[in-house]
Give the backbone structure.
Amino acid sequence: MPHGLPGDERVLRGIADQETARLRDGTLPWSWWLERAVLHGRRYGYLGILLISAQWRGATDVRSYEEWRSAGRQVRKGETGIRVLGRAGAPRAVFDVSQTDGLPLPASLPTPLPASLPTPLPASLPTPLPAPFTTPSRPEAAHRFAALTGNAGGGGVRRVEADSVTFLVAAWLGLAPSMPDFPARAFWAGPGMGDRILRTARRRYEEASGASEHGIMPDAHRFFRARLAESWVPRYLAGRGFPAGVQRRWRIGYAPDGARALTGHLRTLGHGDDEIVASGLARRGHAGRLHDTFRDRAMFAIRTADGAVAGFIGRRRDGARGPKYLNGPDTFLFHKGELLYGLHEARDRLAASARPVIVEGPLDAIAVTIAGPAEYAAVATCGLALTSPQVDALGNVADLDGAGVLVALDGDPAGRSGAVRAWDRLAGIGGPIDTAALPAGRDPAGLLKADGRAAVLRALRARTPLMDAVVDTALERAGGPFGGPEEQLAAIRAASKIIATRPPDAAHQVVRVAARMNVPTALVTEILIDTVSP
């Protein structure tokens, strides 16, 4: 166990290592992990499943405090959180449904629980269990499932992986599969194979279940899509380098400039005013009348991991009043700090080893993706600071320990500051963390408009380690090379705390800091050793 890890992280990784050892020596069968992956695997990775099960054996539906609040439930006062590790390595607390009070979970709320669970069941599971989000009818699900998994064991895929994926997909679809036979000792147990199984199972589940085509959010999306052609949006986007084919692939829409254009349409489809407000598509005025949230805006749909439309972000036309981008409010489906625009659309490219790129706005995400469709797949934070749940969501789809992450925020001081702030959320992933070389004052969409796709691709490929910028910022804030001896020492110590978080990059950073501070590398190395010593 690395000594440089924070105390809480070290303890949690120790628990996960113990549980992994029990799987490998046969104390726990692999079927034990799979049963719990049915419950928690659509939200959490391999380590999260182990940590939840070790701390709360009877847990069935585990979510963050904010997720429960969005679902209309409140964590009871005094409840102890279940600690898990995010993709960035930072511990965070989550809570089981049994620790909450409030509204019943609506049928349209995403949940990791299948309609019927395989046997044997944990003794503490309640019945009946809530149905999964967007689960199709059993005959339809069975047909899709058979088509997707008929050759699960072929193509060199190891039987354990194939059987595990098949079992999870069938269980999430409510098909009650039989548990496959596995060797007594799960010698393969670990984050590498566990997370690979979960990523594959999630993709196949999405393909088999299909995204929901019913409900208020899909109805709103169809309304926006139907009004695109006669609006200003197609010509505007085409002029910025997003032709009609790109607009169709990304299913961009338009919200008309009317106070109740969408509201009136949704009412004709049978949606009540309370439902329209709860979905974030309208707001109540002082007199109680509804007003559409989005008016005269290009509309971009934000989807859940299952592909269902959870919310929208709208861009105003140039020169119009109001914020450039308008996010819908938090709802039972849409929590802005947990979803990434474009993640669902990018899942196939990410599965094919495209490198994840983090950008700010939806047009930036589209610009990056069309510039290097096989090489890069972008997701957007939609103007918000990158959060741990967003990194977790990205890690559920992409192999962050292999492909790493490329940050391509605006090439201005605010964008550079945002990239530095993102470091705290990304430092714990195993793959390379780089920043794109965007020109000053340009974001990917602006670069596409000015200089075309080739220029965007060049900026992405001319990347530098994000750690360089983070370390340089720490040196400058602590005094830098032009201060007195005490300030210089404080600056090197500040930089060493950052360097200690990424041991593979330590040698490169020690040389950089020594050159910047004009001190011997041996001095920087000594301070770094003192920093990581317990």
Observations:
- The chain has four domains: 7-209, 216-327, 343-462, 469-532.
- The mean pLDDT is 84.
